[in-house]
Task: structure prediction
Amino acid sequence: TNTGNVTLTDIQVNDPMLGGAIELEETTLAPGDSTTGTGTYTVTQDDLDQGEIDNVAIAIGTPPGFDPDDPDNPNNPPKPEDNGRDRIPVIQHPAITLVKEADRDNLIVSEEIVYTFTATNTGNVTLRNVVITDILAGISDINYISVNGEQLAEGTSITLQPGDVLVAQASYLIQQADVDNGEVINNATVTGISPKQEEVSAQADEIVEQDHYPAISLEKTSNVEEVTKVGQTIEFTFTVTNTGNVTLTDIEVDDPMLGGTIELEETTLAPGESTSGTGTYVVTQEDLDNGII
Result:
């Protein structure tokens, strides 16, 4: 708009952010007259991260009597100019998701679970210093593998643009206690820092379960192959083995002929472990008459 009292010619609007000169409908304006022009701009990720689009344009016109051939002549009337500024706010939505997957669905002692973590920037702003943490005791260090399929160098500070996908892995060695519990529950968290220095996070759980198969076996042997007389002492050995997949406690062996409970070396057995105990028996006349004990 010409806000002065003389006609302005060769009116120009320059907007650096829009590429420079803006084409106007009119380039000559009488006092009070206005003209318009338009320009387009494509929003960038930097704009979203900054939180606003700040656009400044400059309008300039040539007054009567200005000599374009001698612009530095002090007798030239000054060219009027004005700045126009438009600040457009950006709605920021920082967000991230985490998916955690295990490579197996059962628990076998001394074998590994390999966990794969997939973190995705689901917001509209850049997230920096992205880190995955896992609270499972005994889990390995997390290995950051790739962003959008491109391998990451060790020690790289991870930045995720909107839509970027981070993949990482860690492993865990299965313990007998895990089988006894019937499951391994694992919780992981991913965090990132938004352009406003706010922490953005997400959690993911993964549970690997195992059914319980308690089982036990008992083997009984003696130190003699035959008996020949009353009063002969037989020593019996009892071997108990945990043949299941869970720890057994309070293990007992009862032999009524030997007086009841047999004392064992151990009363708690992990799968595959064995314990033993002994008991003695004195041969009676009735045993000899029966022909068998």
DSSP finds three helices and 17 strands in the chain.
